[in-house]
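Hi Y.,

Following your request, here is the sequence exactly as I used it, all 70 residues.
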Amino acid sequence: MPFFASAPFPLLDLLRGIANVWSLGLIVAVVVTLAWFVYSIFLKRWLRVRRIANIRLRRILEENERSEGR
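Below is the corresponding structure, written out as tokens. Let me know if you'd prefer a different format.
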């Protein structure tokens, strides 16, 4: 017979509450880890590509201004 089966009900309720908090903590940890992964892999790469595109566009616009000024 398991230990929890013979325990009084308040103790079972306490253990269930602790288990629920632990499960919630694990879910939060998984969500945070997934968000960090998405940020570190995809979002950083997308921001870098966008920054490079903006630098290229700025350079092209500056060259056009210089060529029109001549």
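Residues 3-69 form one domain.

Thanks again,
Q.
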